[in-house]
Amino acid sequence: MRVVIQRVSEASVTIDGDIKGSINRGFLILLGIVEEDSQNDIDWLVGKIVKMRIFPDSDDKMNLSLADVGGDLLVISQFTLHAGTKKGNRPSFIKAARPETAIPLYHNFITTAEQVLGKPCACGEFGADMKVALINDGPVTIMLDSQLRE
User: Fold this and answer.
1) Which of 27, 79, 109, 126 is catalytic?
2) Residue 150: pLDDT over 90
3) 6 has catalytic annotation
4) pLDDT per residue as tens digits for the range 50-105
5) Average pLDDT over residues 127-147
6) Is the Cβ–Cβ distance between 100 and 106 less than 8 Å?
7) Is 78 one of the catalytic residues?
8) Would 150 be classed as within a structural domain?
9) Is the peptide bond before 139 cis (omega within 30 degrees of 0)?
10) For the purposes of burial, counting CB atoms within 10 Å of the CB of 146, is it exposed (0-12), middle (13-18) or buried (19 or more)?
11) Considering its fold, how many domains does the chain have in total?
12) 80 catalytic, yes or no?
């Protein structure tokens, strides 16, 4: 499971012209899932995301977590995070989980994040053509992979 975390001052996702979800200060999470992923990957990633200290404190040092600042989450499924680009110029998405695996894990990720944060998360819609808008604060963008656990 891979995530791209973007610290935002605001973000939203629009589907068919309607805003499906929006947040103010918090993280936009782009989530890519592979067949081997499990609840263990979700638990590790959500724990890292909620505790990651990348918001500024009173000394303007990145020292506060999402939980510390009462930030929000917007979670977007993005199978292209597992694009294979080794051969040719057309990416392969063979590593990305099929919908029957990915959809339940996507929903479990959101549910787990809501339980850990203690409030609802905004989200996109799996498989939809989504328009994501954001103001990246910093900019701060961090990638995590539950298989590497770096």
Assistant:
1) 79
2) no
3) no
4) 999 999 999 999 999 999 999 999 999 999 888 888 888 888 898 888 999 999 99
5) 94
6) no
7) yes
8) no
9) yes
10) buried
11) 1
12) yes
Give the domain range for residue 102.
2-145
Q: What's the CATH code of the domain at 119? A: 3.50.80.10
Q: Which residues contact 71 (CB under 8 A, 6 or more apart)?
A: 25, 26, 27, 55
C-alpha atoms less than 13 angstroms from C-alpha of 105 in its C-beta half-sphere: 26
Is 32 part of any domain?
A: yes
User: Is residue 140 a contact partner of residue 11, using CB atoms and an 8 Å limit?
Assistant: no
| Active-site residue (options: 27, 55, 78, 112) | 78
Rounded Cα distance, 22 and 38, in Å: 27
Cα 83 from Cα 80, distance rounded (Å): 5
Cα distance between residue 133 and residue 145, in whole Å: 24
Classify residue 93: in a domain, yes or no: yes
In a domain, residue 26? The reply is yes
Q: Choose, from 39, 80, 111, 115, the residue flagged as catalytic.
A: 80
Q: Quick check: 106 pLDDT over 90?
A: yes
